[in-house]
TrEMBL record:
InterPro entries: Flavin_Rdtase-like_dom, NADH-dep_flavin_reductase, Split_barrel_FMN-bd
Start and end residues of each Flavin reductase like domain: 21-164
Keywords: Oxidoreductase
Listed name of the protein: NADH-FMN oxidoreductase RutF, flavin reductase (DIM6/NTAB) family
PANTHER family: FLAVIN REDUCTASE (PTHR30466), FLAVIN-DEPENDENT MONOOXYGENASE, REDUCTASE SUBUNIT HSAB (PTHR30466:SF11)
Protein family according to the UniProt entry: Belongs to the non-flavoprotein flavin reductase family.
UniProt source species: Williamsia maris
Amino acid sequence: MSVEPIDLAPATDGDALRAAYSCFPSGVVAVCAQIDSTPVGMAASSFATVSLDPPLVSLCVQHTSSTWPKLRDAPRIGVSVFAASQDLLCRQLAGSADRRFDGIDPQVSDNGALFIPGAAAVLSCSLYNEFPAGDHNLVLLEIEALSADPTIEPLVFHASTFRALEARA
């Protein structure tokens, strides 16, 4: 058996690192709360499930985010898993903070978690823990209550674009 050498780029090569990260698809979520009667939220594409006991999910937030410091102290944070058809809503929530909720009638729980209508799943969460991780913070959220419809296709972010999943037989 012949072993072929592989040409590796150093991890300090930002373009190569971004290209490698783009090879892994991730779910896309809205992270929102109602704070002082005002909807506050953002989109996150680094969302992952973590644990069943306790029920935890994670996301990564840039240190430069001006939205996360507002959400961090909310009693409940709503996480909405975007449906495949909600790519424009996702872009809107990733855009200018003062226009993120234009034309959106969010759903609000009694404790202030805010949700995007039509999402594949919604999770009412509280902050479980947060860790500095390079130029981001790794945020762990504990799920307190939820609703999900697995028949709704989720929005997927891969290779710097939105994609749909394909079921294979």
